[in-house]
Amino acid sequence: MRKSIVVILGIICVILIYFTLVSAGKVFRSEGQLPPRTPVSEQPKYRLVLITQELDTPFWIKVSHGAMEEAEKAGASMEVWGSYGKNEEDFLKKIEIAIDSKVDGIIVQGLDSDAFKNLTKIKAAFNGIPIITVANDVPMVDSLRRTYVGSDQYLAGQMIANQLLADMGDSGKVILLGDSRNEYFQQQRLKGIDDILKNHPNIFTRYAETADTKEQVIATTQNLMNELPTVDAFIAVNANLAGAMIQEIGRRARVGPYFIYSFDDSQDAMSLLESGNLDGMIEQSPYDMGRISVDRMIQWLSGKTVPLNTEGYLTDIRMLRKANQP
Amino acid sequence: MNSIQKKIWILAGVVLSIMAAIWITLTYYNQKTMDQYNEILQRYLSMNEVTNASQQTVTSLYNYLLAPTEVNLTQLDTSKVRLRKARIAVLDLRSEESDFALTNYMNLIDSLIETTDRSLMFQSEKESEDSDKAFSEATRISKYISETTLTLLDNDLKTYDRFYRDMIDQSSELKKLGIWLMLTITFMLLLFTYLFSSSITRPILKLTQAARELSRGRFDLQVEVTSNDEISFLAKMFDRMRININNLISEIQQKAQLENELQQNKLLLRESQLRSLQSQINPHFLFNTLDMLSKKAYLEGSEETSDLLASVAGLLRYNLKRLDRPMTLKEEVRVLGQYIEIQKARFTDRLQFNMDIDESCLSIQLPGLTLQPIVENAVIHAVEPREDGGTISFRVFDSGERVTIEIADDGPGMSETKIRQILREDNFETESHSTGIGFNNVVKRLRIFCGLEDVIDIKSESGNGTIVILTIPKTKGNVKDDEALDRG
For residue A2, which residues of chain B lie inside 8 Å, CB to CB? Predict the structure, then answer.
């Protein structure tokens, strides 16, 4: 009787102690994950910001990827800011915040607008913050940028025109569709195309500008096709317009017979090429752009290369053709 | 030795220390949690302070630009001081992840202060357009600060989301732990109390049982208590007492036995005395008659009869007188001679009596009337029943320390059982017509007198007679002899 009481009580005690220990373990173990309040081990040498208007496009993801990697290698801290879907107001605000935050350097997608130029030329210069434009350039006189890293847009225009000639032949009607903002890089591309095509008098070019909303693009494409029913080729000088344009062409006729060209810096460029709607596309090197821009910025900040080449550091461009795709 | 008091102290100590440990742990844990909460709150409060201070600065600047009075200027200064303080407070919030954002944040605050100063400068230089521009910039920066504050808070929430959830989980775990702890302590206390109380009461129970057994008179059960406190001490003492009582009792028993034996001896003596008294009923008459008969026979010329009668009278007197005191062997031998004379008159030639005595041994002492009954016994068994009579030989000789007395007959002998009966002093039936004192009585008295068991021995073979051998120590006899002589 006595013994059994002791044994039963003992067993109950052991079980309870086990559960208590398990519970205590839960309570006190999770305390190990205190807020990661690790003090800053060492201040990074430079604080850089990459600001773009189109955070979500594959092109810009690659750019930021390259920039991040390079910054990490160089021991600089880097953040990518920007707006989604070409929100200009947001974009400019970010630039202003970056300037007011006194970052060491700003790498920015150039925007050919007065507000942008105002910010870079006056405010950034006033605060002594260097600016490098990437992918899209704004001339130095307008922006006081230190340098430009990206493709030679003029060359890109020439390449696309040459490709058109090779595909279509020496005569035909070509529609060039551009953004109504008519930014600097677009002008360069157009110039490149024109410089090639003007030597071929049998080629008739029709340039049109449109706002970048989808409805506007469709409306403009409709008008152009009504105007020129015998058109042979389309070039979307601004890559963002290509999607809506091809959709409209497809609605009216088969897309196949037309020669359609564009660039790669848009959301849907690659998928359009893969689906065969685009005959050719200029592929740029976004990863290199990010990498090189950070590299140049750090070189400038550390005083290794002063001044930077004001003409810019050009990255590789290639012509991607439908036939090239498997 | 663990005293009961010590046990109680230990129990209380264990309980107290468990309670204290739990209390300390919980308090420490609580404090830690509170610190964490405080820190989190502090973070949010200091960020909020930046927003408020920046807004206040902008408002003060606006007021001053509208009405550049001393009061507004001081107000602007105080709000700037507040903003700087808030900036320093934010400095503490640095961490690896938020470093970039926080640096931006602080630089924004710097920019705000600079822009405010610039606006003031333009104001003092009466360039109101530039001043307004700077003011609008300050407003924008203030707006950015508020936004950044929100972003930082948002980031903070995201970063510490897991941690906050952990805290919530932990508090619920703590509740569970509390319940488990309470249950555990309750059962542990139950167990300890049970063990503790039984460790005290069990020995007491055992002791009670032992006491009960003792009171019933069982002194042979050992009192065993296997604890190590006062109770075991008590039990030990109790056991010692039991052993002592046991010893005393056995001592008393031994004494009683001795007393008993003594009593028995006395009784035997009484018996012989009683017998002698019985035979004293008319001793004087008998002596006088025998004397008178002896004289008469002598006068009538029958000398033989006269001598015989004198022998009978002498034997009778000795028989009556000398039973309770030691006699010398000489005296005994004399009486034996008288007895033989009488028996010879009875049996004439049928009785042959040979005597061979070492005269130097006659001074030893032995109880009175020892030899006569033995010889009488021999006469009865070896001579009386036989037609042609028998021979009895009596020898006394020195055998070193002792004197040996042999009484041998050539009768039919006795059986082994009978010898054993005699030597064991069992009562056996004796044939009548003895002079009164039986063999049994003789054996007992001899043994008591000498204090030796082997004082008498009987050897017998069927048909070849019986030898009774008495070996009596010399020393004791000599001492007693002197005493006897003193008494006359």
Answer: 198
